[in-house]
Amino acid sequence: MRIAAVQMRSGTRAQPNIDALTGLVTHASEAGARYVLTPEVSLVFAKDSTGLAREAKPFEGNEGIASLSRLAAKLGIHLHLGSLAVALEDGKFANRSVLFGPDGQILAHYDKIHLFDAMLTGLKAYRESDSYRAGDAAVTVPLDPFTLGMSICYDVRFGALYNVLAGAGANLMAVPAAFTVPTGQAHWEVLLRARAIETGAYVIAAAQGGQHESGRATYGHSMIIDPWGRVVAERADDREGVVLADIDLAEVDEARRRIPALANARPFGLKRGSADGARILRKGLA
């Protein structure tokens, strides 16, 4: 199956982003992709909570979602909207990933579980939890012949999530993202490759890239990684574009046969060492 990751530089208003996304997804489809992933916050990359509140709409009756449903049906592909902000009744938002089938129907959606609350040196604090409400459930969905595991951006730092997804049958992990430049330079590729190696699964990562209208800068470097941890396709910059690769279920089977980490995993407890043990050792050495 041929898959594609779309790299975008989303702005602060939905319609121009939908227009840009439509062109990129159409290009991927014309190149033979049957599954196409877009980045995190594809439809609106808001500058602040005010901009987010102005552009984000409820899930039901959402015109942005309807537009992508029509696009998926027109192209006859699985179209995976990496994420969009969805307005919730309590005044917060969900960072929601949505998968459309080739008929345009929504097959699954996932709300980002791990929210990025951090202070990066030289940058202002990021506190997603000020605006977003975290999800509480992992999601897999059949994507014949694969099973897709859904995640979003900061989730990639939490390997336990991907082990749960793999345990539920996922062998293609989606990581739509908007990584900052400092964290992207330091951690992006190594984290993605680690998730592929740990689970023996393909990883497809569609990223935001470049200097955004919102004032933020993102790393780009969208890529597709095979179950052995090899980068098989990459956009080695932060510009808009498409990354394509052909994936094979036999590669998953072979990687998991060679390194059966999922099968070898065991539950375990925790013991804490004691000061008595250290004193005994010192006495014996004396």
Automatic annotation (TrEMBL):
GO molecular function, one term: hydrolase activity
Origin superkingdom: Bacteria
The keyword Hydrolase appears for this protein: yes
Entry-linked Gene3D superfamilies: Carbon-nitrogen hydrolase
Keywords: Hydrolase
Signal sequence region: none
Domain CN hydrolase: 1-249
Keyword Hydrolase: yes
InterPro entries referenced in this protein's UniProt entry, alphabetically: C-N_Hydrolase (IPR003010), C-N_Hydrolase_sf (IPR036526), Nit1/2_C-N_Hydrolase (IPR045254)
PANTHER family cross-referenced by the UniProt entry: DEAMINATED GLUTATHIONE AMIDASE (PTHR23088:SF27), NITRILASE-RELATED (PTHR23088)
Protein name: Carbon-nitrogen hydrolase family protein
